[in-house]
Amino acid sequence: MTLDFFNNTKKKLIDISSALTGAPQIRNDPQLETFKLKLLELSKVVTELRADLAKYAAAMVNSAMQSAKTGLDFLNIYRHSEARQKSITIFSDTTRGMDKLATEIWATQFDQEVLALLDKWKLQVDVLIKRTNGAQKALTKITQSAQRNEDPSTIAKKQAEFESTRSELRELVKKELESRYTVLDAVLVRLMEYQLEYFSRTSSLVSVLDKNVQAYRKRFPKGTTPDFALAAAAAASTPSDTNNSNGASHNSQIDNESEVCSS
To answer: Who's near 263: CB < 8 A, 6+ residues apart?
Structure first.
């Protein structure tokens, strides 16, 4: 009976592969192919999501960095206007604060938590793909051994090991696929938390700009464009100039503002 079992095992292994010419041909196990296909699809999803989130985080960092650069640009442009130093310094400090916050959240915390989680997930899926490939190679060797009429008992032992591995892979792949939305939920919720934290804290930072904005809008309501000649004359008039009948003071200030525009 034992001999019949070995012979039947060998026959099954030989029968699973045949070419049109009738010569033996190695075929992939259908179950393993299904496992691999599903895992490759999942790996692609994780890879693409990771890349998109990395781009998103980088864009947030770059945006804040450019904002800080703009703040420094205005700080330099307004360096000759003493009356504006306080407000422009507040603006520049605010943009630098946003830059620091973006680096803290999107370049450090987001990378260490969300992107790291996706990297770990991708590695886990890749390990299963590698194990699936290994199982297929083992089946190929078993089939080749059967074709060479090697020891039936050895072949039967390897066949049993293969079937055990395939069953284990079936459960692991099933569990991996069923848990994918659980992992995605964790990623999505953490992303939303980072967004809430970042925009809440940046909103607090930029709130100090409201006073200067409102003061300007009292003079020039939104939607109106100040006449450049009148605006320049108004900018040249300081409280001390108002009571000074000497036009030299006005000319000096206007010349000074002209230097700012040309610098």
So the answer is: 76, 77, 80
Distance (Å, rounded) from C-alpha 53 to C-alpha 155? 49
Q: Confirm if 136 and 28 have CB atoms less than 8 A apart.
A: yes
pLDDT at 260: 36
What is the C-alpha to C-alpha distance for residues 108 and 103, in angstroms, rounded to an integer? Answer: 6
Residue 46 makes CB contacts below 8 A (sequence gap 6+) with 118, 121, 122, 125
d(CA 142, CA 3): 18
For residue 219, the one-letter residue type is: R
Find out whether 139 and 163 touch, Cβ atoms under 8 Å. no
Written as one string, the DSSP assignment of 221-232 is -TT----HHHHH
Q: At what angle do helices 247-262 and 228-236 cross, to 10 degrees?
A: 120
Q: Of 52, 98, 35, whose CA–CA distance to 72 is shortest? A: 98
Query: In the chain, which stretches have pLDDT less than 70?
Result: 1-26, 228-263
Q: CA–CA separation, 64 vs 96, rounded Å?
A: 8
Whole-Å CA distances, 183 to 29, 46, 118: 29, 10, 9
Closest CA to 76 of 93, 88, 90, 64: 88
Residues with Cβ within 8 Å of residue 136, at least 6 apart in sequence: 28, 29, 32, 36
Cα torsion at 194, 198, 199, 204 (round to 10°)?
140
* Residue 14: per-residue pLDDT: 52
Question: CA geometry: angle at 26 spanning 24 and 32, to 5°?
Answer: 150
Per residue in 170-184, is it b (16+ CB within 10 Å) or e — as a string?
eebbeebeeeeeebe
Domains by residue range for the chain, with CATH: 2-224 (1.20.1270.60), 227-263 (no CATH)
